[in-house]
Design brief:
- This protein folds into 4 domains: about 1-80, no CATH class; about 85-145; about 150-210; about 220-260, no CATH class.
- It is about 55% helix and about 0% strand.
- The protein has helices at about 1-10, 35-45, 55-80, 100-110, 120-145, 170-180, 185-210, 235-245, 255-260.
- The radius of gyration is 27 Å and the shape is elongated.
- This is Calpain-like cysteine peptidase.
Length: about 260
């Protein structure tokens, strides 16, 4: 058995040793009908000593492509424990396979799962760590996606706004991720989408401020509150920012909140 494994490894030396970051030996290649058909065709060419035939190169490329497909299917099957939408970002949109920290932990998990009974505690711990890492990567992705937006729409820092779960903004952002897979072909659509996203963020900031300012006199001196340039007033803006910070611990800061309001 060991000799057969060594010979098989030699014969497959042309394959990517870690497709999608998964060690080749962990993949069920021999159980895949499509891969087996290609492998038999390649072996037939080798048997006729046509190893340098262009057809051989084509077969090896197709086998490598199939290996990557199998690796993606393998990872998808083994990632059922992950939150499918950390930070409301579909897990498929998060570059898990390109993150060395995530992949190292995942390889540890795959090893541990070979003996699930003995490694139950370690498996649970690694799955928690991997979920936390996926959440961090989702946050990083969101930060990068928002880097070109106005960072303080209407004077409100982006991180204070409930952007992730907005029913209008979220589908727009998902659509943008899909379009960005082929940005040149979709340049005009992408530009229009960016404008829609920016406009929606402004609307969210406006709604956020309206709720935050509900305690204020809505018609000071008979002038409607929304017509006053409050966000442009430095002193008011600073007080509003201080109030926002205090409200993160409302019980502890009750008196300070009342004074500031």
């Amino acid at each position: 058995h060991e000799l057969a494994k060594v010979e098989l490894a030699k014969d497959r030396a042309f394959l990517d040793p870690e497709p999608e970051g998964v060690p080749l030996a962990d993949l069920p290649l021999s159980d895949d009908p499509e891969f087996n058909v290609l492998a038999k065709q390649r072996q037939a060419l080798k048997n006729t000593r046509r190893g340098r035939d262009p057809e051989m190169k084509d077969l090896e490329e197709r086998m490598n492509d199939r290996v990557h497909d199998i690796a993606r299917e393998f990872l998808s099957k083994h990632r059922g424990y992950l939150n499918p939408e950390p930070q409301n970002v579909p897990i498929a949109d998060i570059p898990l396979n390109r993150d060395p920290i995530f992949r190292e932990m995942e390889n540890e998990l795959l090893k541990a799962m070979k003996d699930p009974r003995s490694n139950a505690g370690k498996i649970a711990e690694l799955q928690d760590d991997l979920n936390n890492r996926a959440d961090d990567l989702a946050k990083d992705l969101r930060r990068k996606e928002l880097a070109n937006q106005e960072q303080e729409p209407l004077g409100v820092p982006l991180e204070e706004l409930p952007l992730n779960y907005d029913p209008i903004l979220n589908p727009l952002e998902r659509k943008r991720r899909d379009i960005k897979k082929n940005p040149k072909r979709n340049a005009d659509v992408l530009r229009n989408l960016e404008r829609e996203i920016a406009a929606r963020i402004d609307d969210i900031a406006r709604d956020f401020l309206a709720k935050e300012r509900a305690f204020l006199d809505q018609e000071p001196e008979g002038v409607q509150l929304e017509r006053l340039p409050l966000s442009d007033d430095r002193e008011f803006h600073e007080m509003e920012r201080d109030l926002r910070a205090l409200k993160k611990q409302p019980a502890k800061n009750r008196d300070a909140i009342e004074d500031l309001e």
